[in-house]
Amino acid sequence: MKIVTGRFLRMRRNAIVGAMFLILGLMVSLCGQSQKKTPPTPEERANKLTLWMKTNLQLGDSQVVRVQEINLKYANKMQQLYDNTTLKRRQKVQLLQDNDKAKDQELKGVLTDDQYKTYQSKKAEAKKQVKEKMKHQKNYG
């Protein structure tokens, strides 16, 4: 009878330890999810985009300065649109598209023809990837 009792106690102890690890794992997981990342500031977005453009479009020093100004200008406009709670979704989308066209026109004046073509193709590629990601999240999210 002692053998059965000993096994039972070990099994019970193992179950309790396993449950404790499960609870600990769930707590760590929930804590990690509750710490949401803060969205990047307009300055951070503009800096990241400018760095990407400098690298991928081989911008000259004078181009970098002008592109940084343009990127920051439109990053601030985008932030204002995101923060605006009075506009309807359709209005925001239209304003985002208008700002995107205006930004492209300003960039066209700074970039060479080859740089601008590369920029447009990379931009189209990025849009395609975003659409695919959204489609995937919609189907599986």
Describe what this molecule looks like in 3D.
This protein has helices spanning about 1-35, 40-55, 60-85, 90-110, 115-140. With about 140 residues, the protein is an all-alpha fold. It has two domains: about 1-35; about 40-140. It starts with a helix and ends with a helix.
Blueprint of the fold:
Elements: H1 2-34, H2 42-57, H3 61-83, H4 89-110, H5 113-140
List low-confidence stretches. none
Number of helices: 5
* N-end to C-end Cα span: 53 Å
**What portion of residues is helical?**
over 70%
How many strands, which pairing sense, and closed or not: the largest β-sheet? none
**Shape type:** elongated
SSE order in H/E notation?
A: HHHHH
The figure for the number of domains is 2
How much β-strand is present in the residues? under 5%
Index terms:
2 domains; 5 helices; 141 residues
In summary, what is this structure?
This protein has 141 residues and is an all-alpha fold. The chain is 87% helix and 0% strand.
